[in-house]
Amino acid sequence: MLSAGLPEGTMPKLERPGPLRERVYEALLELITTRALRPGQHLVESELAQHLGVSRQPVREALQRLNTDGWVDLRPAQGAFVHEPTEDEADQLLTVRTLLEAEAARLAAVNADAAGVAELEDLCGRGEAAVGGEEVEKVVEANAAFHARVMALAGNAVLAELARQVDRRVRWYYTPVARQRGAQSWIEHRELIAAIAGKDEQRAVEVMREHTEHTRRSYHERERG
Amino acid sequence: MLSAGLPEGTMPKLERPGPLRERVYEALLELITTRALRPGQHLVESELAQHLGVSRQPVREALQRLNTDGWVDLRPAQGAFVHEPTEDEADQLLTVRTLLEAEAARLAAVNADAAGVAELEDLCGRGEAAVGGEEVEKVVEANAAFHARVMALAGNAVLAELARQVDRRVRWYYTPVARQRGAQSWIEHRELIAAIAGKDEQRAVEVMREHTEHTRRSYHERERG
DNA sequence: ACTCCGTAGACTGTATCCAATAGCCAGTCG
DNA sequence: CGACTGGCTATTGGATACAGTCTACGGAGT
């Protein structure tokens, strides 16, 4: 084995652009989450294909995945439409999120080691810094990263996959309220870290549940805020 | 409106075959769950296409969905392989299932009405009848139907969608142990119905959690059984 | 005997082409 | 004047053809 002595990170991984359909998927998702494509809008395969500089095929495959993930509604022989979220649906989504995240918090408390806690501290620091700044997008991103890290510490791949799907959609709803939530959210994150570091399962669950419920309430009150 | 007087069920709906990719998806899933396609097996698009009498296109799309749903692993430039489940993964899956089903039981207890309870009773009866018979497949099917009904009563579409994915894979693991679980499982179902009918949230959660945990333990002890 | 290189085969991934379907608008008949 | 019917258009859905890439096997050289 010649490669035995080579360090891990030094090989640039030979940047393979990955399947085109994946990149199209990501691109469209970006356009949807940034509201460049608005809810209810009619998406035409050929237009998207031309706009992205690829053929229709990858666009089709991407749209189908977006359909199964709940981002677009695919009406037969008519086209794809950006999904319009309803109040009920948002509520259900946030309910499920509470469930998944609470379980993740519990498992994280069970499994966490010093290194894991340190990572969370680090992310929390970055998040708090972002709150001070102007860019809402940064805050939302940091928030997602923090929750993803907790999920990773839980060590349940199936749970993580489900949460990934749910959280991404929650992020879409969350963006408008991120500003008002702001600082309070990161205080709660700190409490969560403390519970995890202390391996206090019950407390971790409670903190996380309360935290996500706050987010839910903020969402429902978003117009009046 | 000429069609006003026509009864609802009389028009045979003109059996619309629906998108081909969907049928291919279902067909392949059937082949996987019945173990006609064994774990680790290499799936070749052109072979499947020819075998099913369709072109490669729908097969591709079906395989991609199977990939995102965790049924096959899609290795770039190499092909699709039927996913081989590991012990860890099964455990994680059953853990998540416990979580989702318990929440569903709670919500069902909150929302249930007389009609809903009656439906559960009915399904339970069918299930008990199936246990008496010989066909394991029938039992597994009845079990899935029962859990699906509870999920429907919960009235959370997002939760239901997640559970649908998870349960289908659980079903795959469950089949081998269905025979040993058999009757005991349906006794627990009866208890669950009682809890739901009595709108006892806490008890519904406990019963369901215990029920799914039993299944998990049965799975881990399957070889020795 | 082992390793390295070259070549051949096969599969995936992408682009183009044709057919089928739903929606819409105008025209026509009652 | 209203409602139905016909054709028209735009778009998806499925099939086919083509190019790029990875793997595996076999032979030659050390």
Structural write-up:
Two copies of one chain form a homodimer. Chain A is mainly alpha-helical. The first copy, chain A, has two domains: 20-82, Orthogonal Bundle (Arc Repressor Mutant, subunit A); 87-220, GntR ligand-binding domain-like (Four Helix Bundle (Hemerythrin (Met), subunit A)). Helix content of chain A is 71%, strand content 4%. Chain A is built from eight helices and three strands. Chain A has helices at 20-33, 45-52, 56-68, 87-111, 114-132, 136-154, 157-197, 201-220, and strands at 42-43, 72-75, 79-82. A three-stranded antiparallel β-sheet of chain A has the order 1-3-2. In chain A, a hairpin with a 3-residue loop joins strand 2 and strand 3 (79-82). In chain A, helix 4 (87-111) crosses helix 6, helix 6 crosses helix 7 and helix 7 crosses helix 8 (201-220). The first copy, chain A, is elongated. Chain A binds chain B through residues 19, 21, 60-61, 64-65, 68, 70, 76, 89, 92-93, 95-96, 99-100, 103, 156-159, 161-162, 165-166, and chain B through 19, 21, 60-61, 64-65, 68, 70, 76, 89, 92-93, 95-96, 99-100, 103, 156-159, 161-162, 165-166. Chain A binds a DNA duplex (30 and 30 nucleotides) through residues 19-21, 44-46, 54-58, 60, 75-80.
